[in-house]
Amino acid sequence: MKVLITGGAGYIGSMVCHSLADHGHEPIIIDSMITGSGQQVDQFPTFIGDIANDDLIKNIFKEYPEIESVVHCAGKILVPESALHPDQYYYENVSKSLQLFTTLRTVGIKKILFSSSASIYEAKNGAGVDENSPLSPLSPYAKTKLVTEMILEDFCNAFEIGGIALRYFNPIGADPKMRCGPSLDNTSHLLGNLVKEAEGFTTNIKITGSNWPTKDGTGVRDYIHVWDLAEAHVAALESFHSILASQSKFEKINIGSGSPTTVKEFITIFEQVYGCEIATAKAPPRDGDTAGAFANIGKAKKLMNWRPRMSIEQGMADVIKWHRKMTA
Hints:
It is built from 11 helices and 15 strands. It has helices spanning 11-22, 54-63, 79-84, 86-106, 140-158, 190-198, 226-238, 240-243, 263-274, 298-304, 312-327; strands at 2-6, 26-31, 46-48, 67-72, 111-117, 128-129, 162-168, 170-172, 205-208, 220-221, 223-225, 250-255, 261-262, 280-283, 294-295. The strands form 5 sheets. It has a 7-stranded parallel sheet with strand order 3-2-1-4-5-7-12, sandwiched between helices. Strands 6-15 form a two-stranded parallel sheet. The protein has a two-stranded parallel sheet with strand order 8-11. It is globular and about 55 Å long.
């Protein structure tokens, strides 16, 4: 099948493109290239532009009328930045998504897969959460994800559209074949900072919050290898009709490893994978920080026949390898 990927040159989008291609599907990309890297997806048809550009979207469908599904990955993703510039985040993530969904409706698209986030959960005590757990998005970024989910659900209920929101937990890693990977410029990502310290680019990792109600006081996260996350998109697209077969027109599905890892545990695992010690310092929690949560992934297993296959250690090793490739 042909699939349009918004933000297809970004970290998650590029993984989804390569995973789709590996499974015999044809990704077509639209990306503004403000943060995306076209070099990682240069073998796929790519349109450079904005998802809110109605004429561009319509022209893509004129050129590729066989497109039957859209994976919506485009958007701004930095939590601290969203607190400083909520106006930009609501405009880019909500207003432009609304315009995109409206245009997709006019061109007859009936299957939309949305990149949502586990940051919408309450996540007070490091416990597991399922799709019906309480929601309490704290940052503007998280709020934009929840609002966009609500818009898509309302579109699905009102119009002839089916929608699935995949709620990502904490993706780490790179394409195991080294075709695409993360930018280490995002200073809010723990693994990128660990790699930069181990490679001598930075010093002193800050552990933000050490008195959370978890087993060692540091926050809990659910780290999933980004390739498993990409494969989940393929599973969702290939199972789209069966997922929505029970009269539902919209589903939200957790995508994580299903296992909790504290920040301290994560750093210890990294030290073992890399073979070095990491200097750390305690710091107060940042605005919007919580104790965290991990995913109950029973719904993904049942509806999509998907389960994660790759370990935290593999994710770390792949990022280390990717970083060395990019800085060689």
